[in-house]
């Protein structure tokens, strides 16, 4: 089964990310994590973003999927995206705008809901009528989500340059908020 051609879908996930200096960093999607989307559960297969990361020259970094609330884009180098074994990793340079300052302040306070991504389905599988697996997608944008992520089993955290933690301290901190 394949998704409707041209329709953009959006998924949110409460993923871990950090605010360091004027950058946000973390995961916009996590492989293998199940999310309830209406009447079905959905997972993302490792490699689902691989072809779009090389083919799409301009993926946007937005707030709440709103194209009027632009934070960064891959074409300018202010948004960097890569797949690794965990998921879709991002690095986003926050602009010195009111929107950028607001997002950074919320991230530093750990008030943001998570990350999200907008996509078109290229390949999917339905192992059961209520289970969907995304195998390949055309990524359109990633978004900072202020509330209610769809992939709720992941975490979100913020870190500023003034509160540098050792890896062990960060691991303990993240375990307490999960």
UniProtKB/TrEMBL annotation:
Domain Prohead serine protease: 22-162
Taxonomic superkingdom: Bacteria
Keyword Thylakoid belongs to the record: no
Pfam families cross-referenced by the UniProt entry: Peptidase_S78
GO biological process: proteolysis
Keywords assigned by UniProt, alphabetized: Hydrolase, Protease, Viral release from host cell
InterPro entries tied to this protein: Peptidase_S78_dom, Prohead_protease
GO function terms (MF aspect): peptidase activity
Protein's recorded name: Phage prohead protease, HK97 family
The organism of origin for this protein: Acetobacter tropicalis
